[in-house]
Amino acid sequence: FGVRSSLWKCRRVATSTAHQSARRRMATNQQKRAAAAATEKKRENKEKETPSYPPPSIVMPSNTLIRTDLKEHFEWKDSQRPSFDPQKPPAFEADPSGIVQRDLTETMIDLSEIYDSRLHTSLDDDGSYEVATPLSRELEAYIAVRSAPMTVAEYMRQALTHPLHGYYTNPTSNEEEDWNENDAWDDETTSADDFIIGSKGDFVTAPEVSQVFGECLCVWFITQWQEQEKPKELQIVEVGPGKGTLISDIMRSALNVFTDFGDSIRKIHLVEASPAMRMVQQRKLQALSSDAVEFVFQDGQDSVFGNERPVSPPQEKSNETKSVDKRKIDVVWHDSFSSVMRESSDGTTALPTLVLCQEFIDALPVHVFEKTNDGWRERMIDINSRDEDAENGDEKDKVQSADTKEKLPRLRYVLSPNVTPALRTLLNVNDAGVMENDEAEVGAICEVCPEGILLSQDIAQLLSKNGGSALIVDYGQDGSTDSIRAFSRHQQVDVLRRPGEVDVTADVDFAALRHAVNAKAENHGLHAHGPVTQGKFLMAMGAAERVSNLIEDENTSDEQAEDLYSALERLVLPEQMGERYKVMAIAKKKDGIFSPPGFN
After folding, report:
1. For residue 44, what pLDDT is reported?
2. φ and ψ at 279, to 5 degrees?
């Protein structure tokens, strides 16, 4: 009995101890759950009072140059978009996955947890700064999260070709809300392309001035076709075709006047990033279709638009022409010139090639360098600082004086404190920013366009494989200057104002392009010729004679004759476009001695 009693007592003690331990564990768990619930409730209440506004995700390629691609991952919530306020930053719908692997070189990063405009920026909505554009919000977020400014080249690329907010890729966003009523757009006659090019846009190109420009270029290409012993098949490549006016003028002359040359054209490659501009180019070329010629439109293999881009339905054949087989000319769009090289240099489809690059290189990103007392430094772009404005109060007061409505831009220029990778690579400076045999004075500015240099070399490489020649027409000179600028409604504006809504451009350094082409020993006799002035080139190609013939035509009215003459003056006179614009050719010398026509 004593043993049993002892066992029973021990069991009671053990049971009591276990119960007490269990009760303590239960109480502890209840306290933890209550604390967690309280924390969750507090967080939910805080979110209701102060909603989260994550910035857009940004694609950051391995070469450190950003390319934002927001279409697939979030969209603007227009109903929730407030005016800019540091206490209430813009609303976005972010990618819920956080980090998404795009490919081996790109990673999608969600900045929602690391960006807060109240902490990263010092701008407020007191009326001092201009209203933020969708692109400027992204650039501010990118600069703030990196805690470092961005290069001018990065800024220029985003401002012009951002997938959603770029100047060229989304032209309808370039219309200012406060545009003068007297200059308001006519919705029935104004298309997306008119917001960029033409009298209603931000600038006018030579093809828009007169058809004679395209006809003269066609004449030069015919001389190169003849130099190649008139091949029966060839292809034309235009980089940056704009509204398609130039290629349509060339094709009109080739199909209607120089028919032997026109019959040899089998394919047209157009390097164009904007889907809206592609449709405009298609309309221009499709208007040239006839009973004998039909244009077949398609996107290149690397196009982000795939094969789903709508094309105009083919026209019905009349009873008289049903039995006639039309000659087909393929028109292929590409996102980049490298796509043209891959497709057009294929051994099974390689054709003699004529390349045209008219007012395209001036829109490629440039790196800007400045000579300082400490050596060369790169010009960068940072968020505008309230502290900087306070230090320059007089300048700020001048900008915001009562007699002007102009406000401060949200971004500003700064100089890199040290040597950057671009500076070391492009100017070949040492770690202190010093260049050998440097005679530049302090304050000198140097602009370098690496993409333009590579493009000229790619063109030469394609021509060396396929045969052919190229023309590069743009404004610029031999050498580099401080030329980067922006235009809106034919007026020059601050480069850093309204990113994505103004055209940003820089002069072309033709000496750099010429050296890049001529330095390549594997170009099989190809040389860069020129540049010569546009006026000299057009006159050598018979521009004056062509205009005279048009004026003397009995069907030309007096008003048309005056317009033709005025357009010719604008194209060739030195004080207008004749000297500012230059023409450079990439071609073989005739008999290894003589330069091509127009470049003697």
Report:
1. 57
2. -65, -35
